[in-house]
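Memo to structure team: turn this sequence into structure tokens by end of day. - J.P.
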Amino acid sequence: MTRSKERLQALLKRQFERSISQAEKDELSEYILDPMYAQELLAQLPDLLSIELTDQDLNERQKENVLSYIFNYGQKRKATTYPNRLWPRLIAAASIVVVASIGFYFYNTSRKTEQQSVYANDVDPGKNGATLTLADGKKILINEVSAGNIALQSGVRISKTADGQIIYEITSNNSGKIEYNTLTTTRGEQTQVRLPDGSLVFLNAASSLKFPTSFAKLKDRSVEISGEGYFEIVKDKAHPFIVRNKKQQVEVIGTHFNVNAYNDEPSVKTTLLEGSIKISTDQNNKVLKPGEQAVNSNEKLTIGEVDVDKAVAWKNSKFVFDDENIESVMRKLSRWYNVEVVYQDNVADRTFTGSISRYDKISKILDKITYIEAVHFKVEGRRITVMK
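Reply from structure team:
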């Protein structure tokens, strides 16, 4: 029978109700010896005294390790004395420690060994950086230029702030020629750009934004995105702001919203924080209200309310996962930490809930996933293998 937390809870319930069979007792003993269920068992410590587990269920090496673990714990409490009336309770408590240690000791031991392996091959988080491609094809590596002016084209000055933000400023009347720039982040990079109209765009890892150097002579403010971007748009009713990608376009007047349009994701997700936007595809037109998200999957638009903080967590330097598929989690980690992810086993049924800083090393979040969910990782350079 496949082991699960639900099955363990059912067995414990029967044990506590004294309705458990011998076969089920044997099955429950197997759970006790399995370090993966140590935390679940520790939550039920007061009731575990009724489970019969003899030292014959352990091999000699396991007996030595458990006894050593308990003995070391006892040494720390050695100096404490207790009245005689408390001895029965202490004996019961010691029994609890013996039973719990069988699972807890091996759980901690396996976690420490695995954690050391992960930390030995740790990966640093991503950083601010991007490549700016000018209209004439010239490429500027943002991290390699100093703060200040970095380019001048068609009456537009391009500068970089001390914290890495790129700013476009109109300095004179344009020549009339419409020129386009492209801002690109690789895996492990993110950046910010303030467009000529004053709108601010945060660009996530492995993304690109194509935009005109000036909107002055255009009927609308149109840009193209791939990957993920968060937009804070300056209001201009006469010139709607339009964000296009391969599957849809988003039309706004002035608002804050996020577009997730990675090619390796199963759908395009557009999340509105404030204002109003209209999403258009070849077959649908939908208007979003604040707090709603549009999911575009195979040209079908689905609208629903979401936690907007989760959708823009990346922009606020966090990963936030809410019962999210492990494969989806790993896609996000692979972009930010610039790692390759391969799967040794099928983990499609595994999900993860948690929050962690995007500026922690990858070992911290992998260890957290391992701790909460029955998934393990092997890190070799920039290659992560996921297994059950």
